[in-house]
Amino acid sequence: MRTRATVSVGDELPEMARVVTREDVKAYADAGGDQNPLHQDDAFARSLGFPGIIAHGMFTMAHMAAAVVAWAGEPAAVVALSAQFRAPVFMEETIVAGGRVRSIEERPAIAVLETWVRVERDGRTEWPVKKGEARVRLA
After folding, report:
1. Does residue 121 form part of some domain?
2. What are the beta bridge partners of residue 98?
3. Taking a C-beta distance cutoff of 8 angstroms, is the pair 13, 72 a contact?
4. What is the pTM of this model?
5. CA quadruple 38, 80, 136, 72: dihedral positive or negative?
6. Which end of the chain is more exposed for a tag (fewer CB within 10 A), N or C?
């Protein structure tokens, strides 16, 4: 667990990258019970104007949460997490989660993080597909 003495405003979270695969999206759908055809059926997704199925919004938020937990050092230290869903994520794209310490509250010691998930699309980094905030308790 991070301590107040080791955290400063402006500290960056190590970035966490992963390639989104059909298998990941299927496993997420099965685990969460969200079998929406937008995440399962390419023809259905194309009928809505997408090039194929898209990842669940909560799938990318979970990736953001994993980056926060990795930085925090333990899941129980994360006291709040919120996000705006800004853009779809397509299969075989690389999503990158990250963040930075925006402020620190002293009593109790809480680091307030600006968080995001961005996508690397067509060789360039796109605007965040998720933008959010996390609150992490410090020892």
Report:
1. yes
2. 116
3. no
4. 0.92
5. negative
6. N
Query: For 64-113, what is each residue's pLDDT tens digit?
Result: 999 999 999 999 999 999 999 989 999 999 999 999 999 999 999 999 99
**Could you tell me if residue 39 is inside a domain?**
no
> In b/e form, how buried is each residue of 75-103, taking b as 16+ CB within 10 angstroms?
eebbeebebeebbbbbbebebbbbbebee
In angstroms, the CA 138 to CA 124 distance is 35
C-alpha closest to that of 26 among 56, 51, 50: 56
| Token pair 């020892």: residue | 139
Q: Is residue 78 part of a domain?
A: yes
Both tokens of residue 16? Answer: 């966490």
Tokens for 13? Answer: 């979270």
The DSSP annotation for 15-46 comes to PEEEE--HHHHHHHHHHHT---GGGT-HHHHH
Q: In which domain, by residue range, is 121 found?
A: 4-20+60-137
Our count of domains for the chain comes to 1
Q: Which of 134, 132, 135, 133 is nearest to 110 (CA)?
A: 135
The CATH number of the domain where 110 resides is what? Answer: 3.10.129.10
